[in-house]
Amino acid sequence: MRVVFVGTSPFGIPTLRRLKEAGVEIPLVVTQPDRPKGRGRKLAPTPVKEAATELGLPIIQPERIGDAKEQIAAEKPHILLVVSYGQILPQEVLEIPSIGPLNIHPSLLPRYRGAAPLQRVLMNGETETGISLTWMVKELDAGPVFAAKRCAIDPNETYGELHDRLAKESAEFLIEHLPQLAELTEPIGEPQNPADATYAPSIKKEETKIDWSLPAQKVHNLVRGISPAPGASTTRKGKQLKILRTELTDANGEPGEVVTANPKTGELVVACGEGGVKILELQPQGKRVMKAKEFLQGYQPRGGERWYDNKN
Question: SS3 for 146?
Fold first, then answer.
């Protein structure tokens, strides 16, 4: 089976590696162009390009994938496998593979279609998510589901942790289904019910600001849903403070009030509209990520001080 791999972000790397290990023929890897990165704004390769280079696979980086349709078609792929590519594929590209274009999507479709399913499922406090192998159609994430797997979510699991776990599980899930895929001559799957569809749009900057007047559970879900990046933030003494890991706890105080600040034990608790959160990891503006104890000893917050959202 010949598979043209289409991907950009780190989520696709375990799948690319496992396909190579499984002996699947990968005649071409399509990824996005190198982009400026960091303070120096130097061009940096995509994570998938770095992995494909290490594996010795041919790579192309079209600005728009439609511009490379002849190159892709020349490889006569059975399957076009798309994993976190970051572009909408035009119909003429979707029609290239002889079996079909297959997408790995980290949610139980039709729930959480779109760009940020992992973040949104955590921000909404869901207790499970999943992996869907779907055949791609023109409408975003709306194609028939070839196979799906349910995955439980830990109450304190962060976006970064869930991302890495599901990236690995997605790779293994695909490998399990390779024998079935190899026997197909056309896409076969269960149609999605549009009435059950929900959407997971990209995270907007204003959504990253902590509203301490919300219940602690919602604050906790926001923090873990966008940690480590972009990170949920508050304002302390006029500077941004990112909160990257929390636990739920009891607390009585005004929303945003530091009710416990103990540099010896490392206990740092902030009150919310209902209850509070114990802060475990955070990042002061312009500084590195640190544990609560280090922050308490270095920045010396005091009980009674208030932290604010972007509306204050």
Answer: strand
CATH topology of domain 205-299: Methionyl-tRNA Fmet Formyltransferase; Chain A, domain 2 (3.10.25)
Cβ 212 vs Cβ 234: under 8 Å: yes
- Report which residue type is found at 219: V
281 beta partners = 245, 291
How many CB atoms are located within 10 Å of the residue 103 CB? 23
Q: Which CATH class is domain 3-196?
A: alpha beta
Contact 34/61 with Cβ under 8 angstroms? yes
Burial 75-97 (b: 16+ CB within 10 A, else e): bebbbbbbbbbebebeeebbebb
3-state SS class at 263: coil
What pLDDT digit, counting tens, does each position of 294-305 carry?
Answer: 999 999 999 999
First to last CA, the chain: 58
Q: Which residues pair with 105 in a beta bridge?
A: 132
Place of tokens 């001559």: 185
Report helix, strand or coil for 124. Answer: coil
- The pTM score is 0.95
pLDDT digits (tens, 9 = 90+) for 254-283: 999 999 999 999 999 999 999 999 999 999
Condensed to tens digits (0 to 9), the pLDDT of residues 168-204 reads 999 999 999 999 999 999 999 999 999 999 999 999 9
Characterize the bridge pairing of strands 290-291 and 276-284: antiparallel
pLDDT of residue 310: 46
Give the position of tokens 């779907």. 134
* Domain boundary assignment for the chain: 3-196, 205-299
